[in-house]
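Field log, afternoon session.

UNIT: design team B
ACTIVITY: writing a sequence onto a fixed backbone
BACKBONE:
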């Protein structure tokens, strides 16, 4: 296993800058307007021998070895180039979200990387969103480095990914420099355990209300079926992302996939009226 890991690390190092990384995009849909709110960029590795690899099989390795900083730069460039490309084709994706790992925040020069990437692509800062985990956002705060606050001043949107899985949670939420939270799909998955007591919807509702109270947008992630979508709507979440609406797809399929996803949303809404 050690041997294999070393090989993979070596291959990943070689792969960077060689057009082996690709981005898939998963649309996020606005529940108030019923429109496309944005799309999250999710990295894939087109490995010459192993085929298309999902991030779970190489992002942790990239984080441990520091390669994530270079990988993250490449992802930023690709995502912003894609926004520009969609714009030119007449398809407007309001905002593209990029996942940023703690190491990039921690002295990886994230602010400079973002500013340079925006300049290179000629895309406005307001078209970019960075997703960070609670742990990363808190660490940034405690160090007093405020990279996230700086990014927000630039006009980049900051969202808290996998909300509800870390420690920061409610107590720190109002102190963090974030515009949005993405509720982890664990809230939905645990359905059977507390759904029986009506607990699931109560928690969803409470978090959505909390978000409103402190002026933070709430996205529900990992919505896979119509019951979950109905719950998320009832809870008052602002937007939704998940397999029910749309799977992550290559850039050229995003427009069609988003159209189908919006139709699903419309149908579920109509059936509840
Ligand atoms: P994440 O940021 O929480 O991204 C969402 C993941 O959940 C994606 O997996 C997506 O395919 C999956 N997902 C979306 N909707 C559903 C659903 O309805 N049901 C279920 N079961 N899953 C759903 P993916 O693409 O494999 O990405 C996994 C993780 O890899 C991401 O989790 C993120 O933490 C990390 N990642 C992806 N791209 C990047 C990147 O460019 N940089 C960094 N640092 N991390 C990345
Ligand atoms: Ca994410
Ligand atoms: Ca997430």
């Amino acid at each position: 296993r050690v041997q294999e890991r070393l090989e993979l690390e070596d291959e990943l190092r070689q792969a960077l800058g060689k057009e082996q990384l690709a981005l898939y995009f998963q649309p996020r849909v606005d529940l108030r307007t019923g429109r496309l709110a944005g799309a999250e960029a999710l990295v894939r590795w087109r490995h010459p021998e192993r085929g298309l690899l999902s991030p779970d099989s190489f992002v942790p390795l990239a984080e441990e070895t520091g390669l994530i900083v270079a990988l993250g730069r490449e992802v930023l460039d690709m995502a912003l180039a894609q926004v520009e490309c969609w714009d030119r084709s007449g398809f407007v994706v309001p905002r593209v979200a990029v996942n940023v790992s703690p190491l990039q925040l921690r002295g990886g020069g994230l602010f400079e990387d973002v500013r340079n990437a925006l300049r290179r692509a000629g895309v406005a800062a307001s078209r970019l969103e960075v997703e960070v985990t609670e742990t990363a956002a808190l660490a940034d705060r405690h160090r007093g480095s405020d990279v996230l606050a700086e990014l927000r001043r630039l006009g980049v949107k900051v969202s808290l990914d996998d909300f509800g899985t870390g420690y920061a949670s409610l107590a720190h939420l109002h102190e963090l420099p974030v515009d949005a939270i993405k509720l982890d799909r664990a809230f939905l998955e645990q359905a059977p355990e507390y759904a029986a007591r009506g607990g699931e919807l109560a928690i969803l509702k409470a978090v959505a209300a909390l978000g409103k109270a402190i002026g933070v947008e709430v996205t529900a992630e990992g919505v896979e079926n119509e019951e979950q979508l109905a719950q998320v709507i009832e809870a008052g979440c602002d937007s939704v992302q998940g397999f029910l609406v749309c799977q992550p797809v290559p850039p050229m399929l995003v427009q069609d996939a988003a159209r189908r996803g919006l139709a699903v949303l419309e149908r579920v809404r109509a059936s509840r009226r």
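LOG NOTE: DSSP finds 13 helices and nine strands in the chain.
NEXT ACTIVITY: expression trials, pending approval
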